[in-house]
TrEMBL record:
Gene Ontology, cellular component aspect: endoplasmic reticulum lumen
EC number: 5.3.4.1
Catalyzed reaction equations: Catalyzes the rearrangement of -S-S- bonds in proteins
GO molecular-function terms, A-Z: protein disulfide isomerase activity; protein-disulfide reductase activity
Organism of derivation: Halteria grandinella
Domain of life: Eukaryota
Signal peptide location: 1-17
UniProt cross-references to InterPro entries, sorted A to Z: PDI_thioredoxin-like_dom (IPR005788), Thioredox_PDIA6_C (IPR057305), Thioredoxin-like_sf (IPR036249), Thioredoxin_CS (IPR017937), Thioredoxin_domain (IPR013766)
Protein name: protein disulfide-isomerase
Low complexity composition bias: residue spans: 139-150
Region annotated Disordered, chain positions: 133-167
Subcellular location: Endoplasmic reticulum lumen
Length: 434
């Protein structure tokens, strides 16, 4: 009898659910999920829950408040997995609540692993709105839920070709952590992961892509917490993935590490890191382009390389050159959130490259190179801080006329500038023979 009473109570609780018919949270079921979510062009934030789950009950007020705030911007829904399990069967739900964001490409929902308060939920959703719109404007997002396997394979190839491997992520362990992270002034984001963790696997390509985009500005690292158990204990890692933030400056310590609570996609990670850079006022690196290695390491993947050809010191002087580099640096600081890499070189040192890029006009000259698409764009008109800033803005909005990059960029080894003027040419004296 007691067992029957308990089952009846559980059934009644399940039937009641956590959200009433008047709730701003949309009730999603196995019958309406495809039509409302998968077949729509709208953005959805969805909680998969069980009515008996304590964490789900704690989340409910914040989820409702977020739904009310986001009304008309992002749809907020909930699936009761005790009654409509079929709706969530395709998403590997292993615990409650599980929260997923469905962008324009409904085949690739993203896990939300941020804080469970309404402000964090709303902030994440608004950030995702921006990133999804940017994807759509660049043609990378698809609202169709019936993508063919062929298009999926093509998309995977594009991602692999994007340079989003782990080559720019530092592998950290007990032996190098203190030296590389705590001993540097750089901003570090460090992921503690477990190889078997599903959320860690979902994060991996986003983490790798963010590391490449932030290269030279913010460092990203990873710690296998199942191997480096001592490090995991030091930083009180209790779940995977856990991301710790070490802000800019000297004097880093375990106690000053902060938890990363932003979104787990590349755009969100880059945006968060760029905010830290803005706060610290750290300038992106402007590389002196004197070897092939400098170019190959920094101009690859989904970046746009801004190459400035500065006047030869025979035609300029050290103060003018420093002024040009400072102008580039100032513009670079204002464009940290965009995937630019900056280079400068002395006109005349790379004549073959100048010919390849059709630089038949005066210097300074600025060329934008997309290594991924093998396209180039040239700054028209005179060089100035204002003109350079306008050029970068037009690049991002697609207003710059592009030409094909003909052939591979080859950099001949050149001497590094020591910051001084050239020695004046001494005229030889031939005496008074004449």
């Amino acid at each position: 009898m007691k067992a029957f009473t308990l089952l009846a109570a559980l059934f009644a609780l399940s039937a009641q659910g956590l959200y009433t018919s008047s709730s701003p949270v949309v009730k999603l079921t196995k019958d309406n999920f495809k039509k409302l979510v998968l077949d729509s062009d709208q953005l959805w934030f969805i909680e998969f829950f069980a009515p008996w789950c304590g964490h789900c009950k704690q989340l409910a007020p914040a989820w409702e408040k977020a739904a009310k705030t986001l009304k008309g911007v992002v749809n907020v829904g909930a699936v009761d997995m005790t009654t409509d399990q079929e709706a969530g069967a395709a998403y590997g739900i292993q615990g409650f609540p599980t929260i997923k964001f469905f962008g324009f490409d409904k085949q690739k929902p993203q896990d939300y692993q941020g804080q469970r308060d309404d402000k964090s939920i709303v902030d994440y959703a608004l950030e995702k709105v921006g990133s999804e719109v940017r994807k759509r404007s660049s043609g990378k997002a698809s609202s169709s839920s019936s993508s063919s396997s062929g298009s999926k394979k093509k998309e995977t190839k594009q991602e692999n070709a994007s340079g989003a491997s782990d080559k720019d992520v530092a592998v950290l362990n007990q032996g190098n952590f203190d030296e590389l992270v705590l001993g540097s002034k750089d901003i570090w984001l460090v992921e503690f992961y477990a190889p078997w963790c599903g959320h860690c696997k979902n994060l991996e390509p986003e983490w790798n892509q963010a590391a490449t985009r932030l290269k030279g500005q913010v460092k990203l690292g990873k710690v296998d917490a199942t191997v480096e158990t001592g490090l995991a204990q030091r930083f009180h890692v209790q779940g995977y993935p856990t991301i710790k933030v070490f802000d800019y400056g000297e004097g880093k310590s375990d106690s000053r590490a902060k938890d990363y609570e932003g979104s787990r996609d590349a755009n969100g990670i880059v945006s968060y890191a760029s905010g830290l850079l803005d706060k610290a006022d750290v300038a992106p690196e402007v590389h002196e382009l004197i070897t092939q290695d400098v170019y190959d390491k920094n101009c690859k993947g989904q970046v746009i390389c801004i190459v400035s050809f500065l006047p030869h010191l025979f035609d300029s002087d050290a103060n003018q050159r420093r002024g040009y580099i400072q102008a580039i640096t100032t513009v670079a600081k204002k464009n940290r959130r965009h995937p630019f890499q900056y280079f400068w070189l002395q006109a005349g040192d790379q004549l073959n490259l100048e010919k390849q890029l059709n630089l038949g006009f005066g210097y300074p000259a600025v060329v934008a190179i997309s290594p991924n698409k093998s396209k180039i764009g040239v700054l028209k008109g005179s060089f100035s801080e204002t003109k350079l800033a306008e050029f970068l803005a037009e690049l991002m909005s697609g207003k710059v006329a592009l030409d094909d990059l003909k052939g591979k960029v080859v950099i001949q080894k050149a001497g590094k500038w020591d910051g001084s003027d050239l020695e004046p040419i001494k005229e030889e004296s031939y005496g008074d023979e004449l």
